[in-house]
Amino acid sequence: MxxxxxxxxxxxxxxxxxxxELLTKGRKxxxxxxxxxxxxxxxxxxxxxxxxxxxxxxxVLHIFDDPRLSPYTTQPxxxxxxxxxxxxxxxxxxxxxxxxxxxxxxxxxxxxxxGLTADCTSLEIGDHDDPKxxxxxxxLLYQIRPAFGGNIIATIVNPEHxxxxxxxxxxxxxxxxxxxxxxxxxxxxxxxxxxxxAEYIVKVIDRHIQKSxxxxxxxxxxxxxxxGAGSKEGFDMLFELARELHAEVGASRAAVDAGFVEHDRQVxxxxxxxxxxxxxxxxISGQIQHLAGMQESKIIISINTDPDAPINAIADxxxxxxxxxxxxxxxxxxxxxxx
Length: 339
Description:
With 339 residues, the protein is of the alpha/beta class. Helix content is 26%, strand content 27%. The chain contains 8 helices and 17 strands. The protein has a 7-stranded parallel sheet, sandwiched between helices. It has a 5-stranded parallel sheet with strand order 14-13-15-16-17. α3 packs across α4 (99-112) and α5 runs parallel beside α8.
């Protein structure tokens, strides 16, 4: 009762990184509230799945194992969560802001008449005083996300209804093992008690998954370009620099919208969240939407003609100059010193 639950997104027999990141955050929130962290694994052939998740501090792992539950389809998974939540009454439920999470979260929250905040960039616990009713609430989930095109940061609370539900993008939270030997309880449920046969009306006949063209989210070095890169040719320079550094190329939304580079390289609120060891921002102004996707990089270098560009405020090093002047010098230097 009143515990924190994390829905585990599972591909085959592997738990997605976004779910492990949410377990890390969920453990911290559970400690803050003095409650248990529980996880839900729904799929097929889940033997040993506990070894992947209990090291993140999971106190209770709920397993629903049935061949009909994999690959993911909406209705059976929703039925499991709705039934389990009616029984267990969690105060918080966290999901990844993935294709699956965006499909499943709203359906579950609607069935339970609870709230749901999508694409959160931060989750905290705090109190709330309602000025209209005069009521005070303790230990609510602060669901924090950019709003109005990223012009403000909104803190959303759900005082009355449970569970408080939020989805979070992959890479926003850190993934950290709490204890490799952490001992949790595994509860194996009878799926038939939660999912009637009628819910299996949709069957997946064939399935194809296109692999990502890049490894942007896991890159240790990212060379990112903005509208200030100037053109596709400008990005060709960034790709050349990236090759010398064994890095990946990212981009701001402005550069993607201008057609300089493909959308799957977009970093930011509506793109990929990265936290590399080194982030080189080339011609990026640093709007809040972009900062949300890279501000936790360990070292940030900004190359910009505007010394007052917002990104310079969080950069460790700032080079004031044109991308087309600075980047070729960097390429020349690294070529000379990589031999």
